[in-house]
Amino acid sequence: MSSVRRLPPLRSMAVICALGSSVLLMTGCTNADTARSSVAEAAQTTPATNTASPTDTGTATATSTGSASPSASASMTDDQAERKALVPQAKVTWDKAADTAVKEAPDSKLVDLELKRTSAEATASTGSPSPSTPNPAPSQGAPEWEAKVATSDGTVHRIDIDAVSGKVFRTQAEDQDTDDKQQLADLLKKATQTPEQAVKAATDKVKGTVTHVELDENDDQKAIWSVDVVSTDSWDKTTLEVDAASGDILNQHVDRD
Questions:
Q1: What is the pTM of this model?
Q2: Predicted pLDDT of residue 130
């Protein structure tokens, strides 16, 4: 009797096929997930590559590294701008103003002279008009020379001079005590150098326009002429200390503010 091999039932075959398909599907999914993970890791660890064209790259470089160029000329300070605005307005030089002031008070000598703008106080009716030529005060803010002259006993008179017309518009006696008068009288005796000589010594050293001359005393108790010279190139102001006895330059300081 021959043996007959029995074929598996159809249901069993179906189950086997289903299991085989599942195994293949799981294997495919696993491989796909692994591939996606590898791509993600590569994207995280690989630096970005600049794919811009040469033209784009040049533009980007110019944008990131370029900077604004500095101004051709540095801006002036407020004081420099004020000097630039004021000094050219004064048509009367310091020496002419000094001569006018001394003539206004007999037997006097110049002890202080400064170019400044006319204040509201100066335009008011305080003080007296010039005894020789009474003139109206210039408008507020206009240039003026404020001068102080003193007699040998130290008595001071203030003389206000229009820096455009050269006319005196006010004179006024200064409020002084006995000590102030004596101190100034002593300085006048020590000052054998005239203001004209002191200014020449200063302007020989520093070129510019004189805006202030004052008889003073330095830290060493020495009588000096303090002279301010403004450069019309930079509008810096240089203050020079001139020995009022010898005419030597003792010190100088540049004010660039």
A1: 0.69
A2: 54
